[in-house]
Design brief:
The complex is a heterodimer of chains A (about 280) and B (about 150).
Chain A (H helix, E strand, L loop, with lengths): L1 H10 L8 H26 L3 H20 L6 H21 L4 H20 L10 H4 L7 H30 L1 H6 L4 H23 L4 H15 L3 H26 L3 H22 L1
Helix pairs in contact in A: 2-7, 2-10, 2-11, 3-4, 3-5, 3-9, 3-10, 4-5, 4-9, 7-9, 10-11, 10-12, 11-12
Chain B lengths: L1 H8 L10 H12 L16 H13 L5 E5 L7 H18 L2 E5 L3 H7 L3 E5 L1 E6 L1 H5 L2 H7 L9
Parallel strand pairs in B: 1-2
Antiparallel strand pairs in B: 3-4
Helix pairs in contact in B: 1-2
Classes of the chains: A mainly alpha (about 280), B alpha+beta (about 150).
Chain lengths: ~280, ~150
Amino acid sequence: MEAIYNIMEYIFPFSWSDYTFMKNAFLAILIIAPLFGLVGTMIVNNKMAFFSDALGHSALTGIAIGVVIGLKDPLIAMIAFGILFAYAINRIKGNDNSSNDTIISVFSSTSIAIGLALLSQGGNFSKYSNYLIGDILSINQAELINLIVVFILIVLFWIFFSNKLLLISIDNTLAKSKDVKVKLVENLFIIIIAILVMISIKWVGILIINSLLILPAAASKNISKNIRQYTVFAICFSTISGISGLILSYYNGIATGPTIVIVASIIYFVTLIIKGRR
Amino acid sequence: MYDFFASSVTNKSIFLFRSQTTYDIVKGHLKNFGADMLIDKKLGDLSGGELQRVLLAFATISNPELLILDEPISGIDNNGMEIFYRLIDDLKKKMDIAIILVSHDFNFVAKYADRVIMIDKTIVCEGSPSKVFSNEKFKEYFGDNIQIGGE
């Protein structure tokens, strides 16, 4: 770890690289931002933006459950609840003929309400308001290791399943006709989203986590001609906004999460203009 | 378009690299359907007729033995219909695929089908096109003065 820190101080001779917490945050963003870009591409393709938004909000209930059963770090409870939540939505979506956004909305508001109710018990909600906007500067080395594990997991998933996800995003029946196990791949994908969202919420914040998933991919979609450009641009946009957001927030004293999202949305609007000119 | 085909043809992750071999296979296959020049277009930018040909190419790229088409030419102009049926006929001859096609277009059925089955809840009559179209029951359903196969 020391070696990495030294290298970073050498590459970045600025005042921010003197602080260990800034170096940790920098590394964390370097790991997590590309993942958001990558996973975001298929969320946008599969029209799951609202779904991932709801999933982010459901973290409140996950945190609450973790607190109620007395966990020191509610992450496990958040991931478990997130997976359950995502699976439940996916299940009901297939069986019920109400429109998808209605179902997602119902689940989302229910879980926000339960989370808020449990966490506000005894007037202590302010203790958890960190989760709303997140704090990437609080990340420590053990958590960095967790991120690396998630990184490997998601990259492996992508290597094996991205072709199938692409087919599903075009049409379910079409994918089935090519022997793709649609349900299985979909369920694995929502588990991947749930893990990524839950593990990042502490640092990015419930309120804005979805923008990090959607904005880079949406921006990339505006200007890319094929799946390779789409993926590469999404990863670049996401990483650029992550890093520049972190550094801008350091010099201006603003929370990091919102700064990252502001940069990402600027990129989005620029690509929108480029697309309009073509 | 290439991505769409490649994702079903190869197991290699197409978000990482574009394989020239796969590209050539896909392009060669699309050529049979007069759609090879569409390979670099986006799927969403194709016209109705183009999309139909592309989907037919997609369905046959894995060399199936049986192709089932349910009213495949709905929403295509007369010219496009002729092209589409000729394509299917080609497929039958070149790739040796059995094709079941549901249609209400008797002229095309008369021209291209080997065997016709008329169905109304159950099989009403079956046989060669000329046999079915001259059948009494067929005339009962559709009237006497229907003109088939004007050529």
